[in-house]
Design a protein that fits this description.
Blueprint: E1 3-8, H1 16-29, E2 33-37, H2 40-45, E3 49-52, H3 79-91, E4 96-101, H4 103-112, E5 120-124, H5 140-161, E6 163-169, H6 176-185, E7 189-191, H7 199-208, E8 216-221, H8 229-239, E9 244-249, H9 261-279, E10 285-290, E11 293-298, H10 311-320
Parallel strand pairs: 1-2, 1-4, 4-5, 5-10, 6-8, 6-9, 7-8
Antiparallel strand pairs: 2-3, 10-11
Amino acid sequence: MKKIAVFTSGGDSPGMNACIRAVVRTAIYHKMEVVGIMHGYDGVMKNEFIPMDAKSVANIIHRGGTILKTARSNEFMTLEGRQKALDNLTKAGIEGVVAIGGDGTFKGALEFSKICSIPVIGCPGTIDNDLIGTDFTIGYDTAINTVVDAVDKIRDTAESHDRLFFVEVMGRDAGLIALRAGIGVGAESILIPETKTDVEDFIKRLEGGRKNKNSKIIIVAEGDEAGGAFVIAEQVKKRLPDYDTRVTVLGHIQRGGNPSAMDRVNSSRMGFAAVEALLQGKKGVMIGIVNNTIQYTPFENAVKHIQELNPDLLRMVNILSL
């Protein structure tokens, strides 16, 4: 294998640059040319290829976002779009591809493999940590630390005014950011898509909680079935008018910022392993780290998690919030 390409796709996540750096420098070590593709699958179809060398990835390991940019592509979902992408890769002499992204990225690669023999290896870049085949995805550790830091600041003002704060975090389909960050900040309750939110029971628990608490923090994943932080807060206001209730939506700050040490190390390990997987003849797999060991999961299995979250963690939240 003489020439490979790397791109980032879908939502950006801290650590993507560290992964790009590892891919480029590992490939160069193995005497391969490296091409960076701008704007994900869209860039493959538009021939946005740039040559990369060791210097082009200098001083990026600490930066959030992605130097290769990212985009979501409707055109690539069509057979014509995928054929255009294949033609461009073939003309450029690309013999292998490393795709850094999440569930949609791998589904796209899976469809691409039906018309393309060029091997594709995936690295799991998503702050949601919702993919089967790795303990932690690229960006998850940084995202939950961002949430913890923000909620620590919110609690300062909550305690000063004896307020009840609903803090909404990212997670349309998965509550893993909410769960781990909620434990980290000592939240009174955590509301997530994976569990049914009984608003009546939730209000009763607020009523029956310790009355002399100066503040209360409720973490809500944006995809919670009860409708998100604003909807739930409004219901609480009506039922418990004595509470001074506020809502804060953290939004896209969870995607940004310098990656944590853990994300930098994991991203580097994954990028390194992705190139070596191509050299070993692997294709159609996602690189993951499970129990501190590199694992290879076929794209068709590396999909968003559907299993229940650890019930012991949810039980622990309720006990520790007394």
